[in-house]
Amino acid sequence: RLKEKVDEVLQVVGLTERSKDRIDKYSGGMKRRINIAVGLLPSPKLLILDEPTVGVDPQSRTNILESLKELNKDGLTILYTSHYMEEVEFLCDRVAVMDLGKIIAQGTQNELRLLAGKMDSLKIATIDEMPKSLGEIIKKVSETDEVKIADRTVEILTLQGRKVLPKIIEALGNNGIRIKSVEVEEPNLESLFLHLTGKELRD
What we know:
CATH class of the largest domain: Alpha Beta
CATH superfamily of the largest domain: P-loop containing nucleotide triphosphate hydrolases
Mean pLDDT: 86
Low-confidence stretches: none
Structural class: alpha+beta
CATH architecture of the largest domain: 3-Layer(aba) Sandwich
CATH topology of the largest domain: Rossmann fold
Shape: elongated
Distance between the termini: 48 Å
Radius of gyration: 23 Å
Largest sheet: 4 strands, antiparallel
Helix content: 40-55%
Number of helices: 8
Strand content: 15-25%
Number of domains: 2
Order of helices and strands: HHEHEHEEHEHEEHEH
């Protein structure tokens, strides 16, 4: 039974082909993956990881992140600490921001954006020229006054870009405006951290 479990966790972390090698012959990234495998042996309901990708090569880092993503999809709860915000964005459903040892904000990524007051930027290019009067309609459906219309482009700042975008597209269509392209820019977690703490991640 133990051997079956060992084989299972080695497959999860992508080390099956190196199962007979001595661990002291492993690279730094492989040793990190073995650490995760050891944590998975007792089939935990909660896995706690403290910066598991520090000092590993890009390939090992990608392997670790994808393995953790799949484990989470299969029902494993993961408590993950990291200074790498792109990893947190990729992995985490809920985020807690710590500063000087204290949690200063927590929630989903979208909830943190709302808390920080950081806005999404929507830029819609159209085939047809838009009348200025359309601005009031867009303001209403996008729940913001931050709307600029110039020729065949409308720019919108809103707290809930992806939520209101379908309403904006529908409003444009109802007024005979054909869309050429849509760009959505959302504040990332690094900018949110800076906004909430007033400092860079490694200050």
